[in-house]
Design brief:
- The complex is a heteropentamer of chains A (248), B (345), C (407), D (303) and E (296).
- By secondary structure, chain B is mainly alpha-helical.
- Chain B contains 16 helices and 2 strands.
- Helices cover 72% and strands 1% of the residues of chain B.
- The two termini of chain B are 35 Å apart.
- Helices cover 75% and strands 3% of the residues of chain D.
- Chain D has one domain: Orthogonal Bundle (ABC transporter involved in vitamin B12 uptake, BtuC), CATH 1.10.3470.
- In chain D, a hairpin with a 4-residue loop joins strand 1 and strand 2.
- Classes of the chains: A alpha/beta (248), B mainly alpha (345), C alpha/beta (407), D mainly alpha (303), E alpha/beta (296).
- Chains in contact: A-B, A-D, A-E, B-C, B-D, B-E, C-D, D-E.
- At the A-E interface, helix 5, helix 6 and helix 7 of A face helix 2, helix 10 and helix 13 of E.
Chain lengths: 248, 345, 407, 303, 296
């Protein structure tokens, strides 16, 4: 259990004097599913953005596979194989599902000459397979902008898989999804982890989801790392209960 | 490719070839039409397909003109002396000097412009939306101003190339085919490019660059490559124009920001942004409109052109191709799934 | 007044459409011209066009052009070149290949002429032009280009001579004269600059300021500040009408004290009308003045030309008829003369006749050099004295004494 | 090169020249700032980048000039241009701008560019292509041996510009329409929920912008010259200023306007007046580049 | 381009190497919609009236509405009594927010009526503009999140709430009353609204709508993006407004559990039509609703 893929050490970040993250440290194990929870305003999204390169950090270090990434911009980090999804899903609404998948081919592994080729039969097949995997095969020729929010989230997830990431960061994958869809999504996430061997790092608001999904959970509150442990440990941690559930 | 398409392409090709012989009097206008098609198609590479609306592509046109001229002249004379206002002596070029100079000059124009695109792109592709448009416009204006103050290349006097040595009508046809060949080459190039993964990637940049970044697409590299490909062709078009126009000067002919620089954008919008045929159709319509207004609305042609721009942009936003896509989707092989389109509400 | 010019554009375009039907008696000689009806040269372009039209009417009234016993009238097809070179070149192509004109009248400005001349040369179409003075037009070996006006390096060169004379009168060396030059960055003005610098060099004078004005000039106070600091003895300004207007205005505003100021386009910019006394004592170069003693059988004397023109074009009644108009008329007259001498409509014969031109006109003598520029007519320099344009140089034409120094 | 060094030398040889340049720059910059503020307003409130800004200025100038030609006092030109351009702004809004507000940013840029071409040409057809100006016939004040000259006309112009700017500031702060404009700029949807008729706000804002530009033009024609085709330079300057100052920041716009006026004068002095336009554009590029580098430091791009 | 490929076989390919999702795990929104339609009850107007205690304050009758050419609500009826609260739940795209938009006059109404008041006081307000809705009909709309004016102070934000008052002074007075009620806001009155915390912003959004003293509050997703303790705070405020001040509340809530716990009446909306209507508590207990929307 010592193969750490994302190593966050003592990261601090403040916006205009307001401290969003203070000395946060955490690790994501290779091949596992790690969760990050915390109430709104606890600095989850800030930490997430620091890792994916959306803004610079004030101090500390973030390493991906041993490489310091805290100064790299988004696209360079993505090209290392550390991929993210967006909370407000981002897919190419004007294109259909297959086109979306084909765009998601791992360009980071391509030379310019490779990019100047047309898509191969294998590319199309893989796109179809993954669309089937998330249950969108029948809708693959629909304009994706016309899909429902939940379907768009699934498409985005499929796109991420198409990209063959080493590690996938998911920003609130179940936010705004109908609860009935959530079970299926959890199932897909788990299978992506097991079958494709993709390390998942999931930020979630929904306790129920994360408890079912993650093997290791971190809890942030007020920008500080409050607790870390297995789902059971976290669920019974008094500090977490106080911070997260408020008056409950 | 379906049968219909082959017939269509063959017909267009045939018209292209015979046009200058059928309408010899219109040779220059037809050549200009191809120029418009070239600049519109290349503008659409970044503007329509990649979402970077440059107002500064005219920079490559002007630079292409000057590079072609400087190289051609430089192979025979000292450019500074040639352009000098005091420069005495009547200059002359042999046929061989003329054609070698033209070949090398035009090619150099293309290459130099694509290098310029990479350099300028490196600085400006961090800009988005209006800032990119204004920034590139600024580059083009600044370049025109600087060249107009650069005596070596003729400054505000402009620069004159030698006249085509052969027969006059032959010369006209010659330039027509230079433009037409380039135009066809650009069209085929675009047609191929948009079908590759690269084409899909630049579409992705257009639709959501942040997402493209997050998926690890080499956005900057692709942007630079696209623009430099576009610049290559615009530079070549500029080089050909230089020889066709013979005399040109920086502010109104070469770096004509508010003429050709904007017209190419209007052509694309008129025809339909982000489509292969849009720029071609738009350029043709625009060119005809322009020629007609300035025949029959003498003095008012600019008002008419301005109005055309406003109307196109404001009321006709998807252009001809967009309109056809809406009303005749079956022409484009798009199948409408009745059930699906109902569900989406 | 402005409305009138607008109206005249419309009328012209309408008459263009219907003109084929309206003329009868004499046959037509079809001439083409791309001229600036819009864009920054529009004012002068319209002056030139009016000059062409007035001459055509006068020639028609005088019985037309008699070629080999047949009577002809001129008809001109105009296109608007928008004051842009590439447009002009395209239009010239169009006039020649689509409208099939065999002869051309020039556009306005040296820049446009430079753009069009290669085209007319290419098609071997004789072009008589009246508004492109840059001498760089005449070192290209063009054989079909003829200019009735003096080349631009002569425009203000006599001002340098005047300044030298004045310096010597004061007991100073001519070489001590400090010259400041501010010209627009266009072919015409750059040529003027070249002429002035050449002449200054001859006298050993030193240019203390040598700057170029931008094409959309609206402020030249930066140069005028340097003028204040460096105190030149002669200030040369050239920038078409807007250069003249801006310069006179700011010279007055900033109270620039230079003993001699010389510029072009004073009349076209109507500096006396706009700025009154501020314009006093400024030297203005002109190709022609109505006070000069030239004359010819069609237009009469220079003074009669002025009067006749004002009658035909009432919008000019409150101002000077600009020389741009007069030389445009002269260009048409040159064509008439050449056709009649050639006795044929063959364009090669006409070209040869044009080359052999040697005539007197209300505009002055016209005789073309090998290169096609007019060598029979000097430039004159007028000084604005109490709101009047009085010829002060060269001495052969001078009607008034030079006021020096300017105050 | 020698000339540039010589020009720099003059700055040290006659230090007073620096004052002159700065004063000139500020007097010009004050007028740039007005048009730029109008641009910042429409940009901020309705996300319209108006490239016809300069042409509104020139049109305002011609309104004033026309009045003077017809015997009206010159100072009347400023309010008259304000009112006339208000009307024109309103018409332009209804016909064009109202249809580009919700559209992508390039649309407004191009639509207003078409507008700019039309306006310039119509002005040319109406008034001719000559440069025009209105001579107020006022004296010029001289200082420092006549090296510094302040034409009273310019002084009046600057004062009028200041009054106009102050009026606009007070209007935006305290009037209801001003508040509605600010609210709409910050969140149009929320403003609609509170019963603000944003359509009316947009129309008002755009008309106000045109009116401010028109008044600026009426001042410019008194202290400078105008010509139908000068619009684009004013537009470019407005964009330089707004880009440098940011949106919704009136003091910033004024400061940037004055600063750019001064910088341009310095540039014109050192490199020669022929580079004036190039200098304005270079400043724009420089500002963009600086802002870009700033953004890169926070791992972002300039939107 | 992709059209060529659309001719490809429609039958499911056996994906090499990957599991193919079985029918039981295929997740589909359509499936939810289908199930919802299956449980749809026959809803009578009497039933709706009864839920509104037969004294509806806001009534929607046979409403057909949408955006542009698109029809989203089909023949919808709604009744809510004075000082009652109604919560609309349903899958994404069912038209919940469209109802609020229609009531406030933000979208296109093809046919049908919206009325306010009971008996003889009943007024047809279908065609009023948002502006008139707020100033004449006493209806206020509280947007989802991020609708404050960040560059204005808290005080100015409240004054903007009274934009439609005849005199600015009245708006200021009304704002003072709001400050008296919510001292948390009063403490920050001179601060820029942009620096407020999430909960404070939501409080400001709600209280800003109170400046015009409306009778009906349209509340769009009050809990979205809020941490749990603020969610409770928001519902307490709404509860206070309904029960102490007699405001009628019509709410859209994604968090169906919270919404139904709070509301007197619950409507389940599917594809622009009413599927189930009942008392909030009843719906909570309804197993079908629970299965569909409450996550089991």
């Amino acid at each position: 259990m010592s193969d750490v893929i994302i190593d966050v050490q003592g990261v601090s970040k403040s916006f205009g004097g307001v401290k969003a993250n203070t000395n946060v440290s955490m690790q994501v194990e290779r091949g596992g599913i790690t969760g990050l929870i915390g109430p709104n305003g606890s600095g989850k999204t800030t930490l997430f953005n620091s890792i994916v390169g959306y803004h610079p950090i004030d101090g500390g270090s973030i390493k991906f596979e041993g490489q310091e990434i805290s100064k790299l911009p988004v696209q360079k980090i993505a090209r290392l194989g550390l991929l993210r999804t967006f909370q407000q899903t981002r897919i190419y609404g004007a294109m259909n599902g297959v086109e979306n998948m084909l765009i998601s081919l791992p360009h980071r592994k391509m030379s310019l000459l490779d990019a100047l080729k047309k898509n191969t039969r294998e590319d199309y097949e893989r796109a179809d397979q993954l669309l089937e995997f998330v249950g969108l095969y029948e809708k693959r020729f629909l304009k994706s902008g016309d899909l429902s929010f939940g379907q768009q989230k699934l498409l985005e997830f499929a796109m991420a898989l198409m990209n063959e990431p080493t590690c996938l960061l998911l920003d609130e994958p179940t936010a705004g999804i109908n609860p009935t869809l959530i079970n299926g999504l959890i199932d897909r996430l788990k299978r992506a982890n097991e079958e494709f061997g993709i390390t998942l790092f999931v930020i979630e608001h929904n306790m129920r989801v994360i408890m079912n999904l993650a093997e290791s959970i971190y809890c942030l509150a007020h920008g500080e790392m409050l607790a870390q442990g297995t789902p059971d440990e976290i669920q019974n941690d008094q500090k977490v209960i106080d911070a997260y559930l408020g008056a409950h | 490719m379906g049968n219909n398409k082959i017939i269509l392409y063959a017909a267009i090709l045939a018209i292209t070839v015979i046009a200058p012989f059928v309408f010899p009097a219109f040779g220059t206008q037809l050549a200009t039409l191809w120029l418009m098609i070239i600049v519109a198609l290349t503008w659409d590479m970044t503007g329509g397909q990649m979402g970077y609306n440059s107002l500064g592509n005219i920079f490559f046109y002007g630079t292409g003109m000057y590079v072609a001229a400087a190289v051609t002249i430089g192979m025979v004379y000292d450019v500074g002396e040639y352009t000098s206002a005091h420069g005495g002596g009547i200059t002359s070029f042999t046929d061989q000097q003329y054609f070698t100079g033209m070949f090398v000059g035009i090619l150099a124009a293309g290459v130099f412009c694509s290098v310029c695109a990479v350099v300028i792109g490196y600085l400006t592709f961090g800009l988005r939306g209006p800032y990119f448009a204004i920034g590139t416009l600024g580059v083009a204006i600044a370049a025109g101003e600087l060249v107009s103050n650069w005596d070596w290349i003729g400054g505000g006097q402009g620069i004159a190339l030698p006249v085509y040595p052969g027969d006059l009508d032959e010369g006209k046809v010659f330039f027509y085919f230079l433009f037409a060949l380039t135009g066809v080459a650009v069209f085929l190039f675009c047609r191929w490019l948009y079908q590759t993964r690269f084409g899909a990637a630049i579409n992705a940049i257009r639709d959501d660059e942040e997402k493209a970044d997050a998926m690890g697409i080499h956005t900057l590299r692709y942007k630079l490559v696209t623009w430099s490909m576009a610049a290559f062709f615009v530079g070549i078009a500029g080089g050909i124009s230089a020889f066709q126009l013979i005399h040109f000067e920086p502010l109104e002919t070469a770096y004509q920001t508010i003429n050709l620089g904007i017209f190419m954008v209007v052509c694309v919008l008129l025809g339909g942004k982000g489509t292969l045929w849009g720029p071609v159709i738009g350029a043709s319509l625009f060119h005809v409109f322009k020629e007609v207004t300035w025949n029959y609305f003498l003095g008012w042609q600019w008002v008419a052109l301005g109005a055309l721009i406003v109307v196109t942009v404001v009321y006709f936003k998807d252009g001809v191709m967009g309109y056809l896509l809406h009303t005749k989707p079956e022409w484009f092989g798009v199948k409408i799934d009745q059930k699906a389109s109902e569900e989406t509400s | 007044m402005k409305k009138l010019s607008l109206l005249s554009i419309l009328m012209a375009s309408v008459s263009l459409l219907f003109s084929q039907a309206s003329l009868a008696a004499c046959d037509e000689i079809h001439i083409g011209s791309a001229i600036s009806l819009t864009g920054k040269y529009a004012t002068n372009g319209i002056h030139a066009k009016n000059g062409y039209e007035y001459a055509i009417q006068k020639i028609k009234d005088a019985g037309g052009v008699m070629v080999d016993g047949k009577c002809y009238n001129f008809r001109v097809t105009y296109y608007d070149d928008e004051s842009k070179g590439d447009r002009g070149a395209t239009l010239a192509e169009r006039l020649i290949s689509q409208d099939k004109v065999q002869y051309m009248l020039g556009p306005y400005s040296s820049g446009l002429t430079k753009a069009i001349a290669p085209v007319t040369e290419k098609y071997q179409i004789p072009m008589v032009e009246a508004e492109g003075a840059s001498r760089s037009l005449f070192n290209k070996g063009y054989k079909y280009l003829f200019a009735v006006l003096s080349t631009s390096e002569q425009y203000l060169a006599s001002a340098v001579t005047l300044a030298a004379e004045m310096a010597e009168k004061q007991g100073k060396k001519a070489s001590s004269v400090k010259v400041a030059v501010a010209v627009e960055n266009d072919p015409f003005s750059l040529d003027i600059r070249a002429g002035v610098l050449d002449d200054a060099k001859k006298y050993g004078m030193k240019p203390v300021i040598d700057e170029q004005l931008p094409r959309d000039l609206s402020d030249m106070s930066a140069i005028l500040t340097k003028v204040k600091l460096l105190k030149p003895d002669l200030l040369i300004v050239s920038g078409h009408s807007k250069g003249a207007a801006t310069a006179v205005r700011q010279i007055g505003e900033q109270n620039i004290k230079v003993p001699m100021i010389a510029m072009t386009h004073c009349e076209a910019a109507d500096v006396t009308g706009k700025f009154g006394a501020t314009a006093n004592d400024i030297l203005c170069s002109t190709q022609w003045a109505e006070t000069l003693s030239y004359s010819d059988p069609i237009f009469g004397t220079a003074g009669e030309y002025e009067a006749g023109f004002k009658k035909a074009y009432p919008e000019y009644k409150d101002k000077k008829v600009p020389y741009q108009t007069a030389q445009a008329s002269a260009a048409v007259y040159v064509f008439k003369d050449a056709f009649e001498r050639a006795g044929s409509l063959d364009k090669e014969k006409v070209r040869d006749a044009l080359a052999a031109t040697d005539m007197q006109t209300f505009y002055g003598g016209i005789k073309f050099s090998e290169a096609g520029n007019n060598i029979a007519k000097p430039m004159v320099l007028r000084q604005i004295q109490n709101g009047e344009y009085n010829v002060v140089a060269p001495s052969a034409f001078a009607s008034h004494e030079l006021n020096w120094p300017r105050n | 090169m020698d000339q540039i060094l010589g020009n720099i030398g003059l700055l040290f040889e006659f230090p007073i020249v620096n004052f002159k340049i700065v004063i000139d720059g500020i007097m010009i910059g004050a007028l740039f700032a007005l048009a730029a503020y109008g641009l910042a307003l429409v940009w901020g409130v309705m996300n319209v980048k108006n490239l016809a800004q300069g042409d509104f200025v020139i049109a305002g100038g011609y309104v004033s000039w026309w009045l003077v030609q017809h015997g009206f006092p010159a100072l009347l030109g400023v309010p008259a241009a304000f009112i006339v351009m208000w009307g024109i702004g309103w018409v332009v809004y209804k016909l064009v701008i109202s249809r580009v507000i919700e559209r992508d940013l390039f649309t407004s840029l191009l639509a207003t560019f078409g507008l700019a071409i039309m306006m310039a040409q119509i002005l040319n057809l109406l008034f001719g292509s000559d440069t025009q100006s209105v001579d107020l016939g006022y004296e010029t004040l001289y200082f420092a041996d006549g090296l510094i000259d302040i034409p009273i006309a310019k002084l009046i112009g600057v004062i009028m510009a200041a009054i106009l700017a102050a009026g606009v500031i007070i209007f935006m702060k305290s009037s209801r329409m001003g508040q509605a404009i600010r609210a709409t700029a910050q969140d149009a949807r929320a403003a609609r929920v509170l019963g603000i008729d944003t359509e009316k706000v947009y129309a008002f804002t755009f008309s106000l912008n045109a009116a401010i530009c028109g008044a600026a033009g009426a001042i410019i024609v008194m202290v400078w010259v105008i010509q139908p085709f000068y619009g684009i330079t004013h537009s470019i300057r407005a964009f330089v200023i707004v880009t440098a100052a940011g949106l919704g920041n009136l003091p910033g716009v004024i400061a940037a306007g004055l600063g750019i006026g001064a910088l341009e004068q310095y540039g014109a002095h050192i490199f020669g007046i022929g580079y004036q336009q190039a200098i304005a554009v270079m400043l724009l590029l420089l500002v963009l580049l600086i802002r870009l580098i700033q953004q890169l430091r926070v791992r972002q791009v300039l939107k | 381009m992709s059209a060529e490929n659309s001719n490809g076989s429609e039958e499911k390919k056996k994906a090499g190497g990957y599991h193919v999702g079985g029918v039981e795990t295929v997740i589909s929104v359509d499936e939810v919609t289908r199930q919802a339609a299956a449980i749809a009850e026959d809803i009578t107007l009497d039933h709706l009236d009864a839920l509104a205690n037969n004294e509806p304050h806001v009534s929607i009758k046979n409403l057909v509405a949408g955006y542009g050419q698109m029809e989203i609500l089909h023949n919808l009826d709604l009744r809510v009594g004075k000082a009652q609260s109604l919560c609309l739940i349903g899958p994404n795209g069912a038209g919940k927010s469209t109802i609020l938009h229609a009531i406030f006059g933000f979208n296109r109404i093809f046919s049908g009526k919206i009325e306010i008041g009971t008996g003889s006081d009943m007024r047809d307000i279908t065609r009023l503009t948002p502006n008139q809705k707020l100033s004449q009909a006493g209806i206020a709309y509280i947007l989802q999140d991020k609708s404050i004016f960040p560059g204005m102070t808290v005080e100015e934000n409240l004054w903007m709430g009274g934009f439609l008052k005849d005199k600015p002074q009245e708006a200021k007075q009304a704002a003072e009353q709001v400050f008296d009620k919510y001292s948390r806001l009063a403490d920050r009155r001179k601060h820029k609204a942009g620096v407020l915390s999430g909960g404070e912003r939501r409080l400001l959004e709600i209280s800003r709508a109170l400046v015009m003293n409306p009778e009906v509050l349209l509340v769009d997703e009050p809990s979205i993006g809020l941490e749990p303790r603020f969610i409770d705070m928001v519902f307490e405020i709404l509860d206070d407004l309904q029960n102490k001040e007699g405001k009628t509340i019509i709410m859209v809530e994604q968090n169906a559990k919270k919404g139904l716990e709070f509301a007197d009446i619950g409507y389940v909306l599917v594809s622009g039509e009413l599927a189930i209507a009942g008392k909030g508590d009843d719906l909570l207990k309804n197993p079908k609703v629970g299965e569909l929307f409450l996550g089991g």
